[in-house]
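Final report, section 2: Outcomes. Of the targets proposed, UDP-N-acetylmuramoylalanine--D-glutamate ligase is the one most frequently requested by collaborating groups, and we therefore present its record in full.
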Amino acid sequence: MRDLAQVHQKKVLVLGLAKSGFTAARLLHKLGAFVTVNDAKPFEENPEAQELLNLGVTVICGRHPEDLLEEGFELLVKNPGIPYSNPMIQAAQEKGIPVWTEIELAYKISEAPFIGITGSNGKTTTTTLLFHMLNQDEKKPLIAGNIGTVASGVAEHAESDNVIVTELSSFQLKGTETFRPRIAIITNLYEAHLDYHGTIEDYEASKMKLTQNQTVEDYFIYNADQPHLAAYAQKCKAQLIPFTLKGKTEDSISADDEYIYWQGEKLIDRSKIMLGGQHNLENILAAAAAALLWGGTEETIIRVLSSFTGVKHRSQFVVNWKGRKFYNDSKATNALATKSALEAFPGNIVLLAGGLERNHSLEELRPYMNRVKALVTFGETSDRFGDFAADCGVGEVEKVSDMLSAVEKAVSHSSDGDTILLSPACASWDQYENFEIRGDAFIEAVRKVTEADE
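The predicted structure is given below as tokens.
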């Protein structure tokens, strides 16, 4: 770990705990900063705050004192989920106090280089695929970021011969200043998270911070099939590595209906790829290009693509039972992600959907609802989703209150050859703490229903 004189014996405020805030606070304390943590959760319910207090960190819990920033802080590190409209963040910016997310801290203390992956959809699958490719080629990758492992905690122990393969959200990237990945990947850009960013321009600008510090020694892999993303790419200083699904190209990575190509040469027959769905082909191209640029071998890439079946909760194949294939796509927390899932299957889908009501439009699903033979819906959006499906001509619509009932109803509306797909198009927080718990509930319900009928 590199020493960081920028924080040594300086007053640093960490705003918001959870995993990233806790890790950043502990690390800053270790680096010699005078750390104060401010978290909304009461101290008696806050084990992270209790542990930090035992380390000697100043802890303020249960409230956000308006005068806290009068104490002379020289840096604020915020939990990425806290929006920039937060009064404490706005006050810090007005005072000229730098505001980071822990990704910036991770970069500054890391001995290892970074590969950064972002995008509206597909970043977790791309990150996981790339990690497997580099790992099997013994490139000593570490995996970090929005995928679940806090980047600064990984960077603390990384060595110079490692590479940190990092999934990054727009929330995390917006709080970076010097972060420079040697390879940057943007899988795609669609309108998302406007409740946080306010405008599509701010959302896209936050994503593009991934490349802002890159130089001609670095690489930027991007989706050339999106004209607005290709236009952004032309402003970057890195070497450009476009990918396209529109046929073979001679100088980058591409795909047609039969093959994936690297620099115009066949890399793999698409029929050998285990990971299904047109949307996953974007992820495959991005990951394969990054692996090859980092010195990976074509043989290893082919081996991984011939065996990798998906990331848990992201179009994850669960089981084939009586000719019905069950898929867990609980990570689909918006209509765009569910649209991608529906695109991946040709038809005969029994869809399980619904969740937290954010009043997001469902209209982008309409062109694909003809693939849905029945809908089972739940959560706050159940009535609105049901009305939408009926308006789209879906013949069978069922409303249920829990996941086991949802799977039971889905099976009752299914036949041999059908796909039973959990792809909620909504966040989980009305019924579940997170999408992972929702996905696990689906897997457990599938197990109960299928084992009971054997």
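The first helix runs from residue 18 to 30.
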